[in-house]
TrEMBL record, chain A:
InterPro entries: AIM24 (IPR002838), AIM24_sf (IPR036983), Trp_RNA-bd_attenuator-like_dom (IPR016031). Transmembrane segments: none annotated. SUPFAM superfamilies: TRAP-like. This is Uncharacterized protein (AIM24 family). It comes from Streptomyces griseomycini.
TrEMBL record, chain B:
Residues 1-170 form the TerD domain. PANTHER family: CAMP-BINDING PROTEIN 1-RELATED (PTHR32097), TELLURITE RESISTANCE PROTEIN (PTHR32097:SF3). SUPFAM superfamilies: TRAP-like. It comes from Streptomyces griseomycini. This is Stress response protein SCP2/uncharacterized protein (AIM24 family). Residues 210-231, 238-257, 267-307, 315-341 have a biased composition (Pro residues). Residues 176-375 are annotated as: Disordered. Residues 180-209, 342-373 have a biased composition (Low complexity).
Length: 226, 591
């Protein structure tokens, strides 16, 4: 009976964070090595793992996250295997190894608690699409997992002054050293219902990469569920 | 009890077992993947100076038979017999490698292992799985090496370039093994021979070739999707060819199917020769690449859980080689077999008791590094694929157009741009007065924008799968809501399909004609059907069809429609008729 399902058994752990398939994240939890994960992203765990939603430390760092209901992060601690997922979104695992990355708030799934991180509002873009664009900047030695609706694409900005323009709804993450600015491409005529549908873009320039998902659906499913 | 090795672990063989006549088993498998497992006998400089010590299916033993290839048995994909004390002086290292045969990459492999069995008892095992690798096409699994005494090292190092890179690594015979390169992606039997022959014609009895031309760079896996089909990989391996072409090819099928299938027909006018849809079908079946894993014996099917199947039949199935009987097969192998099945789950199992396997901070992070560490390394696999072409499919759900190539604007669904580079201007594309009237009346209305300028634009929408269809003077019908973008050079018009029983009196569709590319989106993996005398499709699920086929409405279930108010079940079916070569595209999603 198990035969067809046997192929989906967890593979042996080889790293702190790994993909289980494309859409699930497997984290090897360990005492003293806590994890911050999106509230509601846990789908399974094995072992002794405890969850603390909205821990004080997070509240401190993310105090200006205008959520009205506290930071959407929970602290997971303990020993075992933790499986996270976000409504079937693709999961991308990154070993930072000293690098940094800026992640769109809705695309952040989990990261090591000992990493340096902070919440910032994207400069120059006061209110995007009504929700405001918040991003989390993470750096240090450790692991980060992102979500992406569909297999993402990584584009090199190429350095120099050439700008790469991204639809904010499709943006997943970018290198923190890139210069970001907002661009409004709408003209007067787009105000009377004849826009190209691409009213705002974010312009990136400098050395670094931009990660984009093949979907303009930036709905925060985990949050919606409450 | 077997000692479990992890990547990088080393041990003296004498610490593992007193024996020197060892059985080395390698189990490696993955859905739709085939592997060549070989052993390189290297000298003190780690070079393949004597190619008679390159042990693979074509040369199953070294001259003095100190290393022999035994074939699949006892749950192992491949096995060797190594007699350490007969290995000559000049051979100081035996490197066991697995090379992918056909399309695929190492990250797709399931849990596998390399193990050492002495006297019928497993003494060492190094388990690995696909998560330790990424796009590599070859992997060095483990080494026997001589340093004062013979030792074993669990290596687990992947090679991007596959066999080519391996040979380069071992032999440095790069110039000579050039011929290997072209085949390397499909590798396996044919891929293997050339390099060997290049190295030592006499030994391999394939003096045939001056090196073939085509010195393709190793990693280019370009021909992969289609390649596996015609590849007569099996010839070399000659596994019981009866091995049923298993249904397993399913996994590779979708990519084959989605990407090229739709594109392919477009290069030939729909009236033309090859019926596109059949193409994917032969691929899975013809794919002999499947066989080796399944071939070795009916008992040893199911690659992922080798333990299950292997246990009962395996020992007897592939006649243990002569002289190797001493580790009495049934008890000897029977005993190590359970681990394969369970071994994979072992770590989780142990977890509550001993958190050792999770040695995350020390062992894990650097131990894993399937791709280089750091943000760039982790994201390497998602890099944009550069080409000089106008339309490039970046992955199944993203398409890039280079406006500089062809110098003509692109019309795209409004809001479908996710990213662009360069100077691109997006402007509203009106349908014109008549266009709006028609659009409103028929529902075949497209909210378009015109992208002009110079630069690259990436299109995607809602994670739908995208299929660029290249038209060369022919035509295709697509319902308007499934159009993502197209070259402005294409002419399009609304076409009407008449038939009784259709709500509203008629169905409408967009017909694109001319020379250029139209990008069609589908929810999910579509099916492309050849138009036969009896081809029907739900009018809500059909996405596109070649315009040369004739559409007839056939509403078969109207009886039920009358008995309920509202819509019940299958309302309108479309029947397609046309010459061979026409096709329809249906998505698994009814709008």
């Amino acid at each position: 009976m198990n035969q067809p399902l046997a192929g989906f058994a967890p593979a042996p752990v080889t790293a702190r964070m790994e993909n289980h398939g494309n859409h699930m994240l497997k984290v090897a939890m360990q005492t003293g090595n806590d994890l911050l994960a999106r509230v509601g992203s846990m789908v399974a765990y094995e072992g002794f793992v405890q969850y603390e939603p909205n821990p004080p430390a997070v509240r401190q760092i993310a105090k200006d996250w205008l959520t009205g209901e506290g930071a959407p992060l929970m602290k997971c601690s303990g020993d075992g295997l933790l499986y996270l997922a976000d409504y079937g979104a693709n999961v991308v695992v990154i070993n930072l190894n000293g690098d940094g990355i800026s992640v769109n708030a809705t695309n952040l799934l989990a990261f090591d608690a000992h990493l340096t991180w902070g919440v910032e509002r994207v400069k120059g873009l006061a209110k995007f699409a009504g929700q405001g664009l918040w991003n989390t900047r993470i750096s240090g030695q450790g692991w980060v997992a992102l979500t992406s609706r569909g297999k993402p694409i990584v584009v090199d900005c190429g350095g120099g002054d050439d700008e790469t323009y991204v639809d904010p709804d499709a943006l997943v993450a970018w290198s923190p050293n890139l210069k970001v600015k907002g661009k409004r491409s709408f003209r007067a005529q787009s105000l009377i219902g004849r826009g190209s549908g691409e009213a705002y873009q974010m312009a990136f320039s400098g050395q670094g990469i931009v990660v984009v998902q093949p979907s303009e659906d930036s709905t925060d499913r985990l949050r919606v569920r409450g | 009890m077997a000692r479990e090795f992890q990547r990088g672990h080393k041990a003296r063989i004498s610490d593992l077992t007193a024996g020197t006549d060892l059985y080395v088993g390698v189990q490696i498998s993955g859905p739709g993947l085939t592997f060549d497992i070989s052993c390189f006998g290297l000298d003190a400089d780690e070079r393949l100076s004597d190619d008679r010590y390159f042990i693979f299916y074509n040369q199953p033993k070294s001259p003095e038979e100190s290393v022999q290839l035994l074939g699949a048995q006892a749950g192992d994909t491949e096995s060797f017999r190594v007699t350490l004390d007969r290995i000559p002086q000049q051979i100081r290292k035996l490197s066991f490698t697995a090379t992918l045969d056909g399309a695929g990459q190492m990250s797709q492999i399931g849990p596998g292992y390399i193990r050492i069995v002495a006297g019928g008892e497993e003494v060492a095992r190094y388990p690995f799985n696909g998560s330790e690798f990424s796009t590599e096409r070859a992997v060095m699994l483990g080494d026997f090496y001589f340093k004062d005494v013979w030792r074993f090292a669990a290596v687990g190092q992947g090679f991007d370039g596959g066999l080519d890179a391996l040979l380069r690594n071992f032999g440095g015979e790069v110039a000579e093994d050039e011929p290997a390169a072209p085949q390397q992606p499909q590798a396996a039997a044919p891929g293997f021979a050339p390099p060997a022959q290049a190295a030592a014609p006499p030994a391999f009895g394939v003096p045939a070739g001056g090196p073939a031309p085509a010195p393709a760079p190793a990693p280019a896996p370009a021909p992969t999707p289609a390649a596996p089909a015609p590849q007569p990989v099996a010839q070399g391996f000659a596994p019981p060819p009866g091995a049923t072409p298993p249904p397993a090819p399913a996994p590779p099928a979708p990519p084959v199917h989605t990407a090229p299938t739709i594109v392919a027909p477009m290069h030939t006018p729909p009236g033309g020769s090859p019926v596109p849809p059949p193409a994917p079908a032969p691929a899975p079946y013809g794919q002999p690449g499947q066989q080796p894993p399944y071939g070795p014996g009916p008992g040893q099917t199911a690659p992922p859980p080798p333990g299950y199947a292997a246990q009962p039949q395996a020992p007897q199935a592939p006649a243990p080689p002569p002289g190797y009987g001493q580790p009495t097969p049934p008890p000897g192998y029977g005993q190590p077999t359970p681990p394969p099945g369970y071994g994979q789950q072992q770590p989780p199992g142990q977890m509550p008791g001993q958190p050792a396997p999770y040695g995350a901070p020390q062992g894990a992070p650097q131990g894993a590094a399937p791709q280089g560490p750091g943000v760039l390394g982790a994201l390497q696999q998602f890099k944009e694929t550069p080409t000089g072409q106008r339309w490039t499919q970046q992955n199944k759900k993203l398409v890039r157009v280079d406006l500089g190539v062809g110098e003509q604007p692109v019309l795209a669904r409004q809001g479908s741009m996710v990213l662009y580079q360069g100077k691109v201007d997006f402007s509203y594309k009106g349908a014109g007065f008549t266009g709006r009237i028609v659009g409103n009346a028929t529902g075949q209305e497209m909210q378009l924008m015109r992208c002009t300028g110079k630069g690259q634009v990436f299109f995607a929408e809602n994670s739908t799968m995208l299929h660029p269809i290249e038209l060369q003077g022919d035509a295709v019908c697509v319902s308007a809501e499934n159009v993502l973008a197209f070259d402005e050079s294409l002419q399009y018009e609304v076409r009407r399909i008449e038939g009784h029983g259709i709500p509203g009196g008629a169905l409408f569709t967009m017909q694109f004609q001319g020379t250029g590319t139209v990008v069609v989106k589908t929810h999910g993996v579509p099916v492309v059907l050849p138009v036969t005398p009896t081809t029907f499709a739900d009018c809500n699920a059909v996405v596109a069809w070649s315009a040369a086929s004739q559409v007839v409405v056939s509403s078969q279930v109207r009886m039920r429609r009358n008995s309920y108010p509202g819509d019940t079940g299958e309302s309108v079916n479309l029947q397609f008729r046309g010459a061979p070569g026409n096709f329809i595209v249906v998505q698994p999603y009814e709008i």
